[in-house]
Specification:
Length: about 350
């Protein structure tokens, strides 16, 4: 279906993305399948591995991977959640991008490829793309996420908006994108907006960042947006809205795990959803607690009444802690900005060893 780029999905597992860009048959608004069509298998593997016993504060804790929460329905719910009056994270980071995008755009002159890792509904990135387009900075913008249908909608929204910014979708996981990005030779700016990379227990956060650091070349950059607020009331209100939208989002993710596992082990009436804080560092997470004994046959797991599964851990790291993460992951923080509200930070980083080599 040439000409109606947004309605098609292209399989690009074996070809170089640079070739797509150069090749006339790949057109603005295309969505490339870089592993998305295998998502069910990937998610099942992740659930096997990650439904998981992680170590938290010295104790073992089962968690649900974030990818399970973001099926198409979850992503549509997320688009509603991020518009709620108390959900300051999206509103504040948009305000931050409106404020800093001219400054940021100056770092992106030089035919950059922007890779938006977990683009969501692409609402947040628009102030940056608008600025780049107005400044006539030619960039290729690749939006990565887990739902093909949502990516197609995003491309339909973005494509007519820009003349100098070429927009594409990438359907797949972060791991798929790591493999894909290795073959992109133009300078890249990896973007993790909305507290994703860097938002984990310290060791795990550093490990995930390091995987990207390892593939970064001299001109490559990473833009990270992270919530650093320590205001517990604001945090609580943002996750526990009166309508219960956020709780429904978590519940939907658990129901999605039934589809991934091919077995209805999760019945909403058997579980309570609540939230809790941990300190040092401040973190909020959702707790899904069994109301009765529950068996998850496909994974061979039994949960006694009262058992707690956690998910959606939101660490609120302040800049000093992020500097420690960057140092441990081999990144050098080039610049940082704070949202007008003072709650959200963005950091622009490059690979530390390469920064040192460039300076010599
Ligand atoms: C908190 S939302 C942030 C969305 C957007 N960046 C923003 O700031 O508004 C997290 C996004 O990451 C995506 N995501 C989560 N796990 C992922 C994975 N393993 N691979 C690719 N995308 C993932 C979700 O689908 C979702 O769109």
């Amino acid at each position: 279906m040439m000409g109606d780029a947004t309605s098609s999905v292209n399989s690009s597992r074996s070809t170089s993305p640079d070739a797509h860009i150069a090749n006339d048959s790949w057109y603005c608004g295309s969505v490339f399948d870089i592993g998305g069509s295998l998502l069910k298998d990937t998610m099942r593997e992740e659930l096997n591995k990650k439904f998981l016993l992680t170590k938290s504060n010295g104790s073992k804790q089962r968690t649900i991977p974030a990818s399970i929460l973001h099926d198409e329905h979850g992503l549509r719910m997320w688009a509603e959640i991020n518009r709620m009056p108390d959900y300051y994270q999206t509103r504040d980071e948009i305000a931050l991008l409106e404020q800093n995008s001219k400054d940021l755009a100056r770092h992106l002159k030089g035919a950059y490829t922007l890779i938006d890792l977990g683009c969501g509904d692409v609402r947040k990135v628009q102030p940056l793309l608008d600025t780049l387009d107005a400044m006539q900075v030619p960039v290729q913008y690749f939006a990565l996420d887990l739902s093909k249908a949502v990516l197609v909608d995003c491309m339909r929204k973005l494509r007519p908006r820009y003349r100098h910014v070429q927009c594409f979708g990438l359907w797949g996981t972060f791991d798929d994108c790591l493999k894909w990005a290795k073959n992109v030779h133009s300078p890249k700016c990896y973007m993790s907006l909305g507290s994703m990379f860097g938002n984990d227990h310290f060791k795990e956060a550093v490990g995930r960042l390091k995987a990207w650091t390892d593939i970064m070349r001299p001109q490559d950059l990473m833009l990270l947006g992270l919530d650093g607020t320590q205001d517990r009331d604001a945090i609580w209100r943002s996750y526990h809205d009166e309508q219960g939208l956020f709780h429904n989002f978590i519940r939907n993710g658990m129901v999605h795990s039934n589809a991934v596992l091919g077995h209805e082990w999760f019945k909403p009436q058997d579980w309570d959803i609540s939230g809790e804080f941990q300190d040092f560092p401040l973190m909020h997470r959702f707790v899904i607690q069994a109301r009765r004994d529950v068996r998850c046959e496909p994974l061979g797991l039994s949960f006694r009444r009262g058992y707690k599964i956690v998910c959606y851990e939101g660490f609120k790291y302040e800049p000093a802690m992020m500097q420690k993460q960057f140092a441990a992951a081999g990144l050098k923080n080039l610049k940082q900005w704070k949202s007008p509200s003072g709650r959200i930070y963005q950091y622009l980083a490059c690979r530390a060893s390469l920064a040192a080599e460039t300076l010599q």
